Amino acid sequence: MPPGDSFHFRVQRGLGPWSNTLAATTKDDQAPMVALHRAISQGLPHRARKFLSQRPLAVDVPDRAGRTALLLSVLRGDPDLVYLLLNAGADPNHPAEGAAHRTPLMVAAHLGAPALCRALRDRGARWDVRDRNLCTALHYAVSGTGAPGRPGASLTGGGGGTAAAAAREDVVRMALEDGADVHVQDSYGWTPLMRAVMLDASVRVLELLLQAGASSGPRQPQRDKQGHSALHLAALSGRQDVAALLARHGADLRAKSVHGHSARELGRCWPLSLADGANKGGVDATLAVAAAASTMLKKRAARRKQDELEDQIL
């Protein structure tokens, strides 16, 4: 191929499934491609439009960080650029080639941007696509902005005011109306409901999930890899309002985890807020605290059993 050409291809490993459509350009086209991504990052639609008129097939070529121009426009929060790229044929399901493998819809959902989510959804973006941690866009929708006043706005936790909370609710409602799966579990075993509990989502977001069938009751006792249900996680995080909400939707406060602990026991034995841990250290730090809680309760149970044996001997 001559220098400066763009091409699309798909790959298949053995007899496995075909990959998403990939785009690339020959090496000598690197400078113009940088110009496209720079135009998007700087909010210069006229430059982006000029480039795409000359090389329309290069719309999905990623930058050196693995991000497409569409993903950059979503990160910028610019609906005009998003529509420009979608009209130019950008793939709304093209994931970033970085570590997380996030799609534009996942990023827009996390940012709590209903206008961007609607634009992507209307052009074929799917809620069921998963990233490398098996999260869907609904997982991202519930785990961004939490209660008002929470610090941060990263992809591991966040915060915002009343307007931001209302926008997030709109995104979650949109996903549920489109049929997003409320029972899908990520690599940690968390459903969107569990993730919402642990990352301090608003009570209204939790209510929307529960109304869509994300029950934590005995008919659907989904557990994470630590054996905790949404109710156990609410008790671990010290969110009494959420525990009460889940109980009203059928969750059993006496139900035992795989480690033999009820939500009541977890609430009494582990007062540390896991939501605070999530804001400080992200999901991994939150899981570490949950694992420590289970370990601590196991040790307490072992000591209690040993005391009982000693009492019998005496």
Automatic annotation (TrEMBL):
Organism name: Megalurothrips usitatus (bean blossom thrips)
Record keyword Repeat present: yes
GO CC terms, sorted: BRCA1-A complex; BRCA1-BARD1 complex
Any single biological process term in GO: protein K6-linked ubiquitination
ANK repeat segments: 65-97, 100-132, 226-258
Keywords: ANK repeat, Repeat
Single GO term (MF): ubiquitin-protein transferase activity
Record-given protein name: Uncharacterized protein
